Amino acid sequence: MASIAIYSVKGGVGKTTFATNLAWCAAHNSSRATLLWDLDPANGSGFLLGIDPKKKRSAQSVFERTHAAQKLVRRTDYENLDLLPADESIRTLDRQFDRIGKRKRFVKLVEGLAKDYDRILFDCPPVLNETSAQVIRASDLVIVPLPPSPLSSRAFDLVVEEVRGSGKGHPPILPVLSMVDMRRTLHREAREANPKWPVVPQASAIEQCAVERKPVGAFAPRSPGARAFAQLWTAIERKLAKA
Ligand SMILES: Nc1ncnc2c1ncn2[C@@H]1O[C@H](COP(=O)(O)OP(=O)(O)OP(=O)(O)O)[C@@H](O)[C@H]1O
Ligand SMILES: [Mg+2]
Question: 124, 171, 174, 212: which could form a disulfide with 7 (CB 3.0–4.6 Å)?
C-alpha cells in the first residue's frame, strides 16, 4: 500500500480537484484498490464524486476509534474506488488530535486500512497544525498543487519546511503547477523556472467536474485536463516505484 497526501497550506489551489481526479486515475487507469480519504470538513471530495453525506455516523468517530474506518467507507460509482467522507464533525480535528495526545494516531488508522487498499489518497484541509503533521507522518508522498503566483511559492516553502521538519525519513514532495494558462506571462515564467514540475492546465473540463460531480476522466476522457491527470498519475506511480 502507498499513501499520498494532496496538501498545501494555501486554500483554493486545486487540492480537492487533484485528490478526486488522481484517485480516479489510480482506480481506473492502474486498477488499484483505492481509497480517497477526505480530511476537509467541507466534504469537497464527496461532492465531486457525487456522494452526499449520511447523517448517522460522524467522521470524527474514526479518529476517536469509536467506529472503525471501514464502517464509514462508502463505495463510489467507480470500480476500485472507495471514499472515506468528511463532515462538519472534523472541523476541529487538530484539537481532537491534541486532546487524544497520540502522535501516531493517524498513522495507525492508515495502517489498519493497508490490507484493503493499494493506494490511499488524502484530501487535506489548508492547515499547518497537528492535522497536517499527522497526515505527513502517514504519507509516502506529498503532492503540492501550485498555481503560478508568488503567494503559492511562499506556501510551497512552508510545506517544504513542514514536511522536512517532520523528521528523518520524511516523505518526498512532488510540486505540481496547477491551473496553468500558458497565455499568461507569469504562468509561462513559472513553467520555465521549473521545467521538471508536472503541469495541470487551467481547463474548462476540469472546472466542469463540480457541475457533473464526476472525475474529468469519467465524462471527458480525451480532454487536455483528463490527459494531464492521467500523465500526472503515471509520474506518481513512477515516483512511488523508485521510493
Ligand atoms: N485545473 C483547473 N482548471 C480549472 N479550474 C480548476 C482547476 N483546478 C481547480 N479548479 C477550480 O478551482 C477551485 C478550487 O479548487 P479546489 O476546490 O480543488 O481547491 P482546494 O485547494 O481543494 O480548495 P480548499 O483549500 O478550499 O479545499 C474550484 O472551483 C475548482 O473547480
Ligand atoms: Mg479542498
Answer: 124
